[in-house]
Amino acid sequence: MPKSVHIFSLFAIAYFVGYFFRTANAVIAPDLVREFALSASDLGLMTSLFYAAFALVLLPVGVGLDRYGPRFITSSVMALAALGCLLFASAQSFAGLAAGRALLGAGTAGILMGALKAFSRWYPPHLHTTASGLVIGVGTIGSLVSTTPLSALNAALGWRAIFAAGAIVIAASAGAIMLWVRDRPSGVTEVPEHHEGGLGAVFSDIRFWRIVGLNFFMTGTQLATQSLWAGVYLYDVPKLGPLDAGNILLWMALGVVMGSTLSGRLAGHWGVARVIIAAAAIFILSQGALALIPARAWLRPVYFAFGASGVVGTMLLAQTRFIFPPSLSGRSVTAVNVFGLSGTFVLQWAMGVVVGASPADGQGHYPPHAYSLAFAITALGTLLTLLWYLPMMRTNELHPPNSRQG
Predict the structure, then answer these.
(1) Do 211 and 335 meet the contact criterion of CB atoms below 8 Å apart?
(2) Model confidence at 275, in pLDDT bands (50, 70, 90)?
(3) Among 31, 240, 269, 313, whose Cα sits 20 to 30 Å from the Cα of 68?
(4) CA 361 to the chain's CA centroid
(5) Domains and CATH numbers, the chain
(6) Which pLDDT score, from 0 to 100, does residue 197 have?
(7) Residue 193 C-alpha from the chain's centroid
(8) Do 10 and 133 meet the contact criterion of CB atoms below 8 Å apart?
(9) What is the pLDDT of residue 187?
(10) CA-to-CA distance for 120 and 330, rounded, in angstroms?
(11) For the whole model, what pTM was predicted?
(12) Residues ≥6 apart with Cβ < 8 Å to 149
């Protein structure tokens, strides 16, 4: 097996496992609410701590990736995720759940960033976008497993056993990256850049701010919904049971896999900005559809469209590499990702506050109009930041600066 394929596979497996636990709360939420007497705000805060911790460690991870390489940084940080799984599995209080969820987020923060850094060294520039889209596509298959299969596993084993087993799997994946990944091909070094300023050079570029605004709402809303509120919405609005809800969540996960897999190829043909703008428009429409409370028959296509279009926001990370030189690739990409993950933390918690502001019924279900307001707010935010992003159509390079084809 070529070394580049081998490295791709190890990072894709790690991203798969991380994505599974990122989205698991959407299915197990009723169990957590029942066992720990959580309110909508509590549930949103606890789940969103994954993304808060993720965002907090991203910039240090980016600096570490540039200095020490993806092999050491990714595998070392993943040890925190294994510990987080164990804490979550053994939690006896809200504090235990919150600590486990936060460590899971911090521990998975280096996986995708490490993969992108490794690909920038192992793949020629014209294949980087395709490889990035594929690893996200393969990794997000974890979101498929965290729907109907997780619902069945949860019924058979319970969520505590699933998270305990997850600690072992994450530790094994981290060990494989440490043992078998190499930071760069033999004899290859990064070309020194006559480019000073570090993060200051990143933050002073107006294009960076156009990207992060859209990333805040696009990635933030997609992850906040898929990893929690998409499931709770199904339990509260059409009042579905766990298995039926899992089946509809499967359509959102299928959309995520398809969107992430195809987005890199489409961007390579049509340009990153054009693909992102088209996807953002569809994403806004899908949020509007959820705000209008679609009939049950429309839930599957709406969830699919939401997942397929929302995940294209991850291409904003690849676009960042086209703007900044290779010496800043780790820091610039992680800086953009900080805003996406911060958006997830803020929006996931805020949606819980908005939903929880309406009184629940006797069975603990919140009214449909509460979800309508929440999705109307995220749709408006996505629309405004898309309008701010539109000038990026003039920055539509298919290859990053200071690169050679080959």
Answers:
(1) no
(2) very high
(3) 313
(4) 32
(5) 3-183+201-394 (1.20.1250.20)
(6) 60
(7) 30
(8) no
(9) 64
(10) 10
(11) 0.84
(12) none
